[in-house]
Design goal:
By secondary structure, the protein is mostly helical. It has 18 helices and two strands. It has one domain: Methane Monooxygenase Hydroxylase, Chain G, domain 1 (Up-down Bundle), CATH 1.20.58. The radius of gyration is 26 Å and the shape is globular. Bound molecules: protoporphyrin IX containing FE.
Length: 368
């Protein structure tokens, strides 16, 4: 047989997909223990399906991380990165939806085989931990349980792999470095931060005036609203003032460096300029992923409450309360969400100098 024939030789559906292996991998503990519980099949298959999707997520996420590892990200790759991150977000939507299929398992039917599962638990999903670590979740920010490190349930090799992953740059750190390199924040006489400060001032003054002059609020309500506006003002200050920003970073309230935050802000404000459109989509996809993962955590926690009430988990955590806390604490791209607080209305957006606008347009764009 020639080399070409070999390369393009026929392959059978069953062999290619290794279906014998996959379809022979559902061993019901309840059957082994001679107490068959019909719904255990669903329980096994749904977990296996999740693990397969986790594998695809890791496959796509790692490839995107590789694209950002160079200090000089090839612009041609940004479209592919957006495409793959979008795929991850679509998969996560599926993973959220699948919980409804799991909920066709009733608490009574689950209890038929739950006792055979100890101490197996989603805690032991190595791939789920890899997804979290690759995205940027750090050990010190994790919700702990039983005072034991999250990785203690894994083999030594797996622990080492997680440690190495955590020591390297996560997606969050790679994006941070990329954002720090955002050009045009200072371009000839144009200083983005200065023009933005003026626009923020204008916006806040208009909002104060609107509150003072409205006939629909009494004096006490007006005072309260003005105070609340003052708090937003303080938030703006954390971006406008590098020292304040660094204090928040040190306290762990925020994660993104000052320079990267300015880059993200610039991209969000001027996202209609042609060459900023893809970077804007990239940031949006990361927010989608974070949001969907958080949605999954809430959905999973609620499903757990419905399934086992306040019982402790098979992995030994407090169950529902632990899971709810992870939904609150384990968000990764929270600083990207915070950018929304820093948005100003389009009408207040400072005009970019015409030459800079030209730089931000596609080469063949018509400039008046
Ligand atoms: C009847 C269905 C399920 C129940 C009652 C359940 C219950 C729990 C509980 C109580 C925990 C907390 C850890 C513990 O103490 O065991 C947990 C964690 C977890 N479960 Fe589930 N689970 C179910 C289905 C699933 C499915 C289908 C997946 C999909 C992979 C999954 C993935 C996870 C993951 C990844 C964790 C770790 C979460 C974290 O630490 O942030 N679970 N589960």
């Amino acid at each position: 047989m020639s080399e070409n024939q070999n390369k393009y030789g026929s392959v059978h559906y069953t062999d290619y997909l290794q279906l014998k292996k996959i379809l022979d991998a559902q061993h019901m503990r309840s059957v082994e223990l001679a107490e068959p519980a019909h719904d255990e099949m669903l329980f096994i298959i749904i977990h296996q399906v999740y693990e397969l999707w986790f594998k695809e997520i890791i496959h796509d996420l790692s490839s995107v991380m590789d694209m950002f590892k160079d200090n000089n990200v090839d612009e041609k790759n940004i479209g592919t990165a957006v495409h793959r991150l979008n795929r991850i977000s679509e998969i996560l939507k599926l993973l959220v939806q699948q919980i409804s299929v799991l909920e066709t398992l009733t608490p009574l039917d689950f209890l038929d085989f739950r006792n055979y599962l100890f101490p197996a638990s989603g805690f032991q999903s190595f791939q789920f931990r890899k997804v979290e670590v690759c995205l940027g979740l750090k050990s010190q920010t994790r919700q702990t349980y039983n005072n034991s490190p999250y990785a203690s349930v894994f083999s030594e090799d797996q622990r080492t792999e997680l440690q190495l992953l955590e020591a390297g740059d996560s997606m969050l750190q790679l994006i941070e470095k990329w954002l720090e390199r955002t050009p045009f924040l200072q371009w000839k006489e144009f200083k983005f931060l200065e023009t933005y400060k003026v626009a923020v001032d204008n916006m806040l003054k208009k909002e104060q005036l609107a509150i003072r002059e409205t006939p629909f609020l009494n004096d006490a309500e007006k005072e309260l609203r003005l105070k609340m506006l003052g708090d937003t003002d303080t938030y703006f200050a954390s971006v406008l003032d590098e020292e304040k920003h660094n204090e928040l970073l040190k306290a762990g309230t925020i994660k993104l460096s000052y320079k990267a935050t300015l880059g993200a802000l610039f991209i969000n404000l001027y996202r209609d300029e042609p060459i900023l459109q893809l970077p804007f989509q990239l940031l949006s996809k990361l927010i989608d992923i974070d949001e969907l993962l958080t949605t999954w955590r809430y959905r999973h926690a609620q499903m757990v409450l419905r399934m086992i009430g306040r019982k402790i988990g098979t992995g030994g955590s407090s169950g529902f309360d632990y899971l709810l806390n992870t939904a609150i604490k384990h968000q990764i791209f929270i600083d990207m969400h915070n950018i929304s607080t820093l948005m100003i209305p389009r009408s207040e957006l400072p005009e970019l100098p015409p030459q800079l606008k030209k730089q931000l347009s596609f080469y063949y764009s018509k400039i008046d």
